[in-house]
Specification:
165 residues, mainly alpha, Arc Repressor Mutant, subunit A, HTH-type transcriptional regulator PecS
Length: 165
C-alpha cells in the first residue's frame, strides 16, 4: 500500500538523486501523523469545552492524585510554560471553576492549585474521549506492533526529553 510520503520520496529521488532522502520516509510520516493527532485532540477538547492548554493543566493536577493539587512551580515543570503564562492560565481556569487556589500549609507565602470537582469531571471526560480517538488512530496496528513502535519512538525522543531546554 502506497501513501503520500511514498510519492513525495519518489519525486525527490527522481529530482535530486544526489541526496539521501531516506529520513523523509520516517519523519514525514511522523509529521503527518502528528497533524492527524492534533486535529483529533482539538476535536475532543472542543467537545468537552476545553482548550489544549486547559487539558494539559487539568490532567497534570489529575495525575497528581488525591487531593489533586500542585504548586504553580510544579505545574510549570509539567507543562513547560513561563511563570507569567502559568499565572494567566490558573486565573482563567479558576474563573471557569475548574481549579481553585489554596494557601500552601508548608509555605505561608505559597499557594497550591487544586482541581475542583468540575475540573476533575472535565479532565476525566476529555481523557476518555482522547483515548478513544487515539485508539482509532492506532487501530491498524496489532498490540505487538504498537509496543514495537512505542519502543522505537521512545528511543528517538528520549534524548530530547532528557536535554535541558
Amino acid at each position: 500500500m502506497k501513501d503520500e510520503v511514498d510519492r513525495l520520496v519518489a519525486a525527490w529521488r527522481r529530482e535530486r538523486p544526489d541526496l539521501d532522502v531516506e529520513p523523509l520516509e520516517v519523519l514525514s510520516r511522523v509529521s503527518r501523523l502528528a497533524r492527524h493527532l492534533d486535529r483529533a485532540r482539538r476535536q475532543v477538547f472542543a467537545e468537552h469545552e476545553l482548550e489544549s492548554w486547559e487539558f494539559d493543566v487539568l490532567t497534570a493536577l489529575r495525575r497528581a492524585g488525591t487531593p489533586y493539587q500542585l504548586s504553580p512551580g510544579a505545574l510549570l515543570t509539567q507543562t513547560l510554560v513561563t511563570s507569567g503564562t502559568m499565572t494567566n492560565r490558573i486565573d482563567r481556569l479558576a474563573k471557569k471553576g475548574l481549579v481553585e487556589r489554596l494557601p500552601d500549609p508548608s509555605d505561608r507565602r505559597g499557594v497550591l492549585v487544586r482541581l475542583t470537582p468540575s475540573g476533575r469531571h472535565h479532565a476525566d471526560a476529555a481523557l476518555a474521549g482522547l483515548l478513544d480517538q487515539e485508539r482509532a488512530i492506532l487501530n491498524g496496528l496489532s498490540a505487538p506492533e504498537r509496543q514495537n513502535l512505542a519502543t522505537l519512538l521512545r528511543t528517538l525522543t528520549a534524548p530530547f526529553d532528557n536535554t535541558p531546554a
